[in-house]
Design goal:
This protein has 17 helices and three strands. The protein is mostly helical and 402 residues long. The chain folds into two domains: 46 residues; 236 residues, Up-down Bundle (Receptor-associated Protein). A three-stranded antiparallel β-sheet has the order 2-1-3. Strand 1 and strand 2 form a beta hairpin. The chain is flat and about 100 Å long.
Length: 402
């Protein structure tokens, strides 16, 4: 028989929580009414609800909205438990609703808020839990939640800008490939018939084009290409699952023209903003560096942060190992050094992050204006190459006639 967790209130308005066994949700509601309780919320604890809690990741947008609303609720003076109940009822994601309701039950049973959040690592990352724990210890939970909301909002805005910068070139490049395949598949065969009737030796570019056309018209062309692509992706995933593979791939990404510089700026902004947010909320520097390493998003920067953490543990300053890594620009390491000496490290880190956020915005704007003519030129080169290869035999024949 299914088990349901319920939140209800008595005739006097007192709130109660508990579990009840019933065949259906409606049956559980009727049993509560017989006990003199009015159900506010009934959630199935087994089967689907359990799978939702354990197996699905929460969207970053949902987490941002939850954090912002919870910060507002707590700062307005309402109890944390009441705020969790409100948010569990109004969240749009049923998976997240189950998670928040479970967190509320754990808090009501006596657990700390941070310990309740730690049970759901796919919903609440280490950074989130660590900041909440520091907020609980300092008695400034609403302030820490506000910092978390600001951090998540800045991160979401950065992701949105990167997605917008990458969407156009991916779509345009896909269109270029489709146009090339269409020309090779449907146009080239018409010329191939003409060339076979004329006879004679064809130029090398024309032969390559006709061979490609013959391949794309076979029944095994699509399965072969799909198999090659899947195989390459599989091999790439195996390679990237190793530490050296991740490092080499991420290092190569940073060397890609134009986009490599953008990724470097994004990584620096993410690292400095995360470290600033953690230290400002009271997390000690070593624990903060460990969290930043896991959330860096690039193995090159993660390795530099890891080495910096080891150096700080041995008594060095943070700026010195970052300078030796040659991953961070001189401006960044010098500002961090000044911040350490003046005791305003988190402020310096936030200024660095704000600077690189503006750099990312400027780079994205430049990319959107620069990529359009580049892609048009690429399309012209692809189509022009096919046309030239097709007309080379005809031009050669006309020269022989004259």
């Amino acid at each position: 028989m299914p088990s349901y967790a319920y939140t209800a209130h008595t005739r006097t308005g007192a709130k109660q929580r508990g579990n009840i066994n019933a065949e259906t949700r409606q049956a559980a509601q009727q049993m509560l009414q017989q006990r003199g309780l009015t159900a506010d919320k009934i959630v199935e604890q087994g089967g689907k609800a359990k799978n939702l809690r354990l197996n699905k990741r929460v969207k970053s947008k949902e987490l941002l909205i939850f954090t912002r609303q919870l910060s507002t609720i707590v700062s307005s003076g309402l109890p944390l438990l009441q705020g969790l109940d409100i948010l569990a009822e109004q969240t749009e994601d049923p998976n997240f609703g189950v998670i928040v309701d479970s967190v509320a039950q754990d808090v009501e049973s006596g657990e700390t808020f941070s310990d309740a959040l730690r049970r759901f690592p796919r919903a609440f990352p280490d950074l989130y839990v660590s900041m909440v724990r520091s907020g609980e210890a300092s008695g400034d939970l609403d302030g820490v939640l506000m910092q978390l909301a600001d951090y998540l909002e800045a991160s979401e805005d950065l992701k949105r800008r990167i997605r917008s910068a990458m969407t156009y070139p991916i779509v345009a490049f896909s269109i270029i490939i489709l146009i090339a395949i269409g020309l090779i598949t449907f146009v080239v065969p018409q010329f191939s018939q003409i060339f076979s009737e004329l006879g004679g030796e064809l130029p090398v570019p024309t032969m390559i084009l006709i061979t490609a056309s013959d391949f794309f018209r076979t029944w095994y062309a699509i399965p072969t290409m799909a198999l090659i692509i899947v195989g390459l992706i599989f091999l790439l995933r195996i390679y990237s699952s190793t530490e050296s593979g991740r490092f080499n791939i991420d290092s190569a990404k940073l060397r890609v023209p134009i986009f490599g510089g953008l990724q470097r700026k994004v990584a620096i902004s993410r690292v400095t903003r995360t470290l600033s947010t953690l230290t400002r909320s009271g997390v000690n520097i070593l624990q903060a560096l460990e969290i930043v390493e896991r959330t860096a998003g690039n193995e090159v920067f993660a390795r530099a942060i890891r080495n910096a953490g080891n150096s700080v543990r041995n008594g060095e300053s943070l700026a010195d190992p970052l300078t030796r890594s040659e991953v961070f620009p001189a401006m960044v390491t010098r500002m961090i050094s000044v911040g350490e000496k003046t005791g305003a490290l988190e402020t310096m880190l936030m200024k660095i992050s704000d600077f690189y956020d503006s750099e990312v915005r400027a780079t994205v704007d430049q990319l959107t204006s620069l990529l359009e003519p580049i892609l048009i030129v690429m399309m012209g080169i692809v189509v022009g190459s096919i046309v030239v290869a097709l007309f080379m035999p005809i031009l050669k024949l006309s020269q022989l006639v004259t």
